[in-house]
Design a protein that fits this description.
Carb_kinase_PfkB-like; 404 residues; ten-stranded mixed beta sheet; UDP-N-acetylmuramoyl-L-alanine:D-glutamate ligase; Carbohydrate kinase PfkB domain-containing protein; alpha/beta; 16 helices; four-stranded mixed beta sheet; kinase
Length: 404
């Protein structure tokens, strides 16, 4: 499958973004508030992130949850269990039946996406973080990956570029762009069902030193299907002197593919690691103590910065001998938790880049994460950006120049 950068301008590559995100497959999110009756029909745990589960992908669920070695064996045989696009269309039809009205706290920021309908935008954990750094904090950011030549690829391209993200390292390929259904319950908790069927992606052998030259940070999300490209990216990034940030993705990913994750951490190449409370629990499953404090201490053995987010209870972080614990900032009840951890990472990274203290980094992350949960989707709207800057000012945190 041929590929070409969206921008062939070599000058653009010379002006390297400060932060790069690796998202092998560009992704488009379909976000909607739904009632419990739909969530109860879907296999898998609420709050998780596994491929759409309808009859043909039931085997994926069984293999990854009950017999991961067999799943890996099938991958090695080059027989991935694909989720058909027809299944995605099926679940989207069901979403339209079960969708419920959602009145965002910022009533005027979703005019293009009526709250009683599905909101479609560029998504993926890394894309959310990179977009947040660029649009909300004014940090020059770019993304490495691939998007299809379909309408979803054009949507991803437009959404990211309009938020100031450098796309000169994003390959354009013939084929489908990945999609994900984000189901949000009445409490604001999200359940992710990605569809990666035949989606285009950047391969490990396509990465070059030029992709990373001149940048300072590389942002990654752990995923077993992307393990080879992740390892290749880390190797090249380290050769170019970049710091590496890793998000643990989901509790299912940690539970089922813990050993490859531990090898990544033990390599010493991960400088900053983000985990939510569920992921941290899975990481320490079987240990006598599996609490957030123990988890952050465990991660800090391998990483310069270790962060465990605790949802409405804030976060705990460690850097060197310093430990910080910061409460959440914002509404007690989230409209949609989609992207909360991703945008927390944006704020925390901004703090690290600006040389703030560990506690201040956590507070900026809390402001950023608290801003995105005020409306549907993993994108901080203009009004919520202003809310975030106000919270930062109240807490005497330095606001980015872009806020002025």
């Amino acid at each position: 499958m041929g590929a070409e950068p969206l921008s062939k301008n070599k000058v653009a590559l010379a002006q390297a973004p400060f932060v790069l995100g690796l998202q092998p497959s560009a992704l488009v999110d379909h976000v909607a508030r739904v009632d419990w009756s739909l969530l109860d029909q879907i296999l898998g745990e609420h709050g998780g992130s596994i491929p759409v589960l309808t009859p043909t992908s039931l085997l994926f669920f069984l293999f990854t949850n009950f017999y991961p070695p067999l799943f890996l064996f099938l991958l090695l045989l080059d027989h991935p269990l694909e989720v058909e696009l027809g299944e995605l269309e099926y679940i989207l039809r069901e979403v339209k039946i079960h969708v419920i009205s959602c009145h965002d706290n910022d009533n005027d920021n979703d005019d293009d996406y009526p709250s009683s309908h599905i909101k479609t935008l560029a998504g993926g954990s890394v894309a959310n973080t990179i977009r947040g750094l660029s649009n909300g904090f004014g940090i020059s950011s770019g993304i490495i990956g691939a998007c299809g030549d379909d309408e979803k690829g054009k949507l991803f391209d437009h959404n990211m570029s309009s938020n100031g993200v450098d796309l000169s390292r994003l390959r354009k390929k013939k084929g489908h762009t990945a999609q994900c259904v984000c189901l949000v319950d009445d409490l604001g908790n999200r359940t992710m069902r990605p569809c990666l069927s035949n989606a285009v992606k950047v391969q490990a052998e396509e990465l070059t030193k030029e992709d990373f030259k001149g940048s300072k940070w590389l942002v990654l999300r752990y995923a077993i299907l992307n393990l080879e490209v992740i390892k290749a990216a880390i190797l090249l990034a380290k050769q170019e002197g970049l710091l590496v940030s890793l998000d643990l993705a989901s509790f299912e990913m940690v539970r089922n593919f813990k050993q490859p994750l531990l090898k990544l951490l033990e390599s010493g190449n991960i400088d900053l690691c983000f985990a939510n409370e569920d992921e941290a629990t899975e990481l320490l499953r079987g240990e006598q103590n599996a609490d957030p404090v123990t988890a952050v201490e465990f991660l800090a053995k391998y990483c310069q910065w270790a962060v465990v987010t605790l949802g409405p209870n804030g976060c705990i972080a460690k850097h060197g001998n310093e430990i910080a614990r910061v409460p959440a900032i914002g509404e007690a009840k989230a409209t949609d938790a989609t992207g909360a951890g991703d945008l927390f990472a944006s704020g925390f990274l901004y703090g690290v880049i600006k040389g703030l203290s560990l506690e201040e980094c956590c507070k900026v992350g809390a402001c950023s994460g608290g801003s995105v949960v005020r409306s549907l989707g993993g994108e901080v709207t203009l009004k919520n950006c202003h809310w975030m800057y106000k919270q930062m000012q109240i807490k005497d945190l330095p606001t980015p120049e872009i806020s002025k």
